[in-house]
C-alpha cells in the first residue's frame, strides 16, 4: 500500500464521525466548499494543485470561504488587501498553537509546554534573534568562507574544460555542507565533516516523507523513517557536538538553554530533547534554502541576459570595494556588499515568487467575528483554522503582470528594491511572503537571502554556465503545497567551466 493510501485509510477511519457533526453552517460564517468525502474533504484536490483549487473556489465563493481539508475546517482569506487585518490579529487568533501541536512529533521531541519547562518556549524564541541584526554579520562571513571552501575543494580543478552535473545536486551538496559548517561548526580535525554525504543522504530520505509526517501520519506507517530520524538525531550527541569548533552563537545559546533545563528536569527525559531540536533546526535551515537556491540559480542560467546584468553588478560592487576580481583568488563579499546587489536580490525574490507555496496558519481561540475590513466580518468557530495562501497573490496577474514569467528586474525600481505593488488600485502592505508573516515569520530569512546570494555570486563569478537542454523547464512538484519552497519536477543538467582571467 502506498503512503497516500495509508494516509487516506487512517484519516477516514479515525474521523468520519467527528467532522460530519460540524458540516452545517451558521449565518455569518463564510461559505463552505461542499465535499462528499467525510474528513478528507478537499485534501486530495488541494494536494494535487493547491493554487488551481483555491482559484476555482475563489471564483465560485468569493474572497473568503471555508474548506474541509483532512479533518480541519480551514477558512481561506484570498484577498491580499485583507492580509494585514489577519496578520495583526493577536488575541483571538493563535499563531503558535498549530506548530506547537505538529512540529514536535515530526522531529521527535516532546512539546515545549510551559507547565513542564517554565519559560523555555520564550527563551527558544528569543534565541532566533541570534540569526539576525548584528549577529547576521559573523554568520554571513562564516558562510562565505565555508562556501568558498566547498567550491574550491569540490569544483575548482585545473583542467578548465566543460563539466556537467545535476544542477539540483550541485546546489544541494554545497548549500547543505556550507550551512551545516556555519551553524554547527567544524569537526575536531580537518575542515570538513567526513560523514557529510551520508548525513545528507539520510536527510533527503527524511525530507521526502516530511509532508506526510507533518500531516500527522504515524511514523510507524512510514517504513524506515523512524530509524532514519533516530540516526539523524544521534548526529547531535553532546559528546560529538562538544568537539566541534566555530559553532554559531545561535546553536551555542540553544545548547545552553537545553542543558540548563536538563539539570532541572531530568525526570522528563530532556536528554533526548536538545538533540531533536538541533535536528529540527538543521531541517529548517536547509530544507527550503536548497530548492530556493536551485530556482535562483536555474532562472539565471536559463536567462543569460539577466545573468549578465547580475554578474556585472557583482563585479562592480567588488571593484567599488577596491577588489578587481580574479578567478584565481579567494573572494569575500561582506554583508554590506551583498546588500548592494539589487539585481541579484530581485532575481532571488522573483524566483521565490515563482516557487514558494507557504501557508500562513492561525487558529481561532474562541467563537468570534473576525473583522476583515471596515465593512466586513465573518464568524469563525473555536478551533477553526484561518489560512493565508500567498502563492495566489504571487501569481495574481493584477499584482504581477505576466505572472508565470521570470522577470529578473521585477523587484528593482530606480536602482533600488521595488516595494510598491498594487491590487484594486491600493498599495499592498504584503506582496511577497515566501517566509511567512507576523510573529511566526521565518527568523532565518535574512541569513537565507544572504547565503543564496553568496552561492549565486560564487557560481557566476567563477564559472561559465549553460543548461544542457535549454528547452527543458521543470515544473513545481505540488506535494509540499503550503509547506515552503516547491521542488522541481525534474532535474536539469548544468554545464559549467572555470572562467578564464
Ligand atoms: C529560502 C529559505 C527559507 C524559507 C523559504 C523559509 C521559510 C519559512 C517559513 C514559511 C516558515 C514558517 C513561517 C510561519 O509559520 O509563518 C519558517 C520558519 C522557520 N524558519 Fe525558515 N525559511 C528559510 C530558511 C531558513 C533558514 C536558513 C533558517 C535558519 C538558519 C530558518 C529557520 C526557521 C525557523 C527556526 C523557523 C520556525 C520559527 C518559529 O517557530 O516561529 N529558515 N521558515
Automatic annotation (TrEMBL):
<keyword id="KW-0349">Heme</keyword>
<dbReference type="GO" id="GO:0005506">
    <property type="term" value="F:iron ion binding"/>
</dbReference>
<dbReference type="GO" id="GO:0016705">
    <property type="term" value="F:oxidoreductase activity, acting on paired donors, with incorporation or reduction of molecular oxygen"/>
</dbReference>
<dbReference type="InterPro" id="IPR036396">
    <property type="entry name" value="Cyt_P450_sf"/>
</dbReference>
<keyword id="KW-0503">Monooxygenase</keyword>
<dbReference type="GO" id="GO:0042632">
    <property type="term" value="P:cholesterol homeostasis"/>
</dbReference>
<dbReference type="Pfam" id="PF00067">
    <property type="entry name" value="p450"/>
</dbReference>
<keyword id="KW-0479">Metal-binding</keyword>
<dbReference type="GO" id="GO:0006699">
    <property type="term" value="P:bile acid biosynthetic process"/>
</dbReference>
<comment type="pathway">
    <text>Lipid metabolism; bile acid biosynthesis.</text>
</comment>
<feature type="binding site" description="axial binding residue">
    <location>
        <position position="442"/>
    </location>
    <ligand>
        <name>heme</name>
    </ligand>
</feature>
<dbReference type="GO" id="GO:0005789">
    <property type="term" value="C:endoplasmic reticulum membrane"/>
</dbReference>
<protein>
    <submittedName>
        <fullName>Cytochrome P450 family 7 subfamily B member 1</fullName>
    </submittedName>
</protein>
<keyword id="KW-0560">Oxidoreductase</keyword>
<keyword id="KW-0472">Membrane</keyword>
<keyword id="KW-1207">Sterol metabolism</keyword>
<keyword id="KW-0732">Signal</keyword>
<dbReference type="InterPro" id="IPR001128">
    <property type="entry name" value="Cyt_P450"/>
</dbReference>
<dbReference type="GO" id="GO:0008203">
    <property type="term" value="P:cholesterol metabolic process"/>
</dbReference>
<dbReference type="InterPro" id="IPR017972">
    <property type="entry name" value="Cyt_P450_CS"/>
</dbReference>
<dbReference type="GO" id="GO:0008395">
    <property type="term" value="F:steroid hydroxylase activity"/>
</dbReference>
<dbReference type="InterPro" id="IPR002403">
    <property type="entry name" value="Cyt_P450_E_grp-IV"/>
</dbReference>
<keyword id="KW-0753">Steroid metabolism</keyword>
<dbReference type="InterPro" id="IPR024204">
    <property type="entry name" value="Cyt_P450_CYP7A1-type"/>
</dbReference>
<comment type="similarity">
    <text>Belongs to the cytochrome P450 family.</text>
</comment>
<feature type="binding site">
    <location>
        <position position="288"/>
    </location>
    <ligand>
        <name>substrate</name>
    </ligand>
</feature>
<feature type="signal peptide">
    <location>
        <begin position="1"/>
        <end position="23"/>
    </location>
</feature>
<dbReference type="InterPro" id="IPR050529">
    <property type="entry name" value="CYP450_sterol_14alpha_dmase"/>
</dbReference>
<keyword id="KW-0408">Iron</keyword>
<keyword id="KW-0256">Endoplasmic reticulum</keyword>
<keyword id="KW-0153">Cholesterol metabolism</keyword>
<dbReference type="GO" id="GO:0020037">
    <property type="term" value="F:heme binding"/>
</dbReference>
<keyword id="KW-0443">Lipid metabolism</keyword>
